[in-house]
Amino acid sequence: MSLESSDVLWATIRGTFSEEEVHQLMGVLQELHAQLGGPFYLVVDLGSSMGPMTDGTALPLAPRKYLAEHVRPEWFRAVVFFGGKRSQREVLRALVVALQFTGRTRLNACFLETRKEAREWLDAHRERHALPPAGPLP
Predict the structure, then answer these.
(1) Of the four listed, 1, 77, 87, 103, which is most buried by Cβ atoms within 10 Å?
(2) Which CATH number fits domain 2-128: 3.40.50, 1.10.3210, 3.30.750, 3.30.420?
(3) Rounded to 5 degrees, what are φ and ψ at 90?
(4) Which portions of the chain are predicted below pLDDT 50?
């Protein structure tokens, strides 16, 4: 993971998530939201994530359930997924739909093919939804 500017977290996922790793990820996302004082963009490179699709589900049930119960849409300005296999994206789309019902905030998520497309989408979204300049710290 790498933080770009003050509101974009880029993450590259390789392999499957264990339940413990998902717990750690939730801690990082929650902490970043608190440190930034508001929502941020999460851009996820799925690459070859979640293991071979012939070996069962793309994301094991326990980590998937934990994500659905603990991710908060209000942490994110938007989530952009790119790369990965179609079946991986379908699992994540289902998770995004489930998250729409967990909070008062709608999760803005999109699924793209390449890093270049993700960057272009991010730049366009930031331009359309520009935040006002930050005021002085108290």
Answers:
(1) 77
(2) 3.30.750
(3) -65, -40
(4) 50-57, 134-135, 137-138
